[in-house]
């Protein structure tokens, strides 16, 4: 992403979920946001309702922080996602649907 050019003094502990999504999307040969922020992913591609497997999924937490990962499926009121910076790793995580703000796909 463009994070190091814009903010060269940031510590190594910078959140990296959007960086991981950018990396995956770029490896697939698709256009990326090139931003380390979650918010540009909210406008990437088009809305996917109902969500499709692999959709870029944006979350908005109650404290104002945001997260982005890839949608894998539902379990009742929860979504299963694969993302970066989930428990400080690339990991599968389960989140309540009330935190989902956007599902986005390119095609």
Describe the structure.
The protein is mainly β. It has two helices and six strands; from the N terminus they run ααββββββ. Strands 1-6-2-3-4-5 form a six-stranded antiparallel β-sheet. About 15% of the residues lie in helices and about 35% in strands. A hairpin with a 5-residue loop joins strand 2 and strand 3. The protein is globular and about 40 Å long.
Low-confidence stretches: none
User: Largest sheet, if any?
Assistant: 6 strands, antiparallel
- What is the string of helix and strand elements? HHEEEEEE
Structural class: mainly beta
What is the topology, as strand order, of the major beta sheet?
1-6-2-3-4-5
Rounded Rg = 13 Å
Instruction: Please provide the count of β strands.
Output: 6
Total helical segments: 2
Helicity, in percent?
A: 10-25%
Strand content: 35-45%
User: Which oligomeric state applies?
Assistant: single chain
Write down the overall geometry: globular
List the defining traits of the structure above.
107 residues, mainly beta, 6-stranded antiparallel sheet, 37% strand, globular
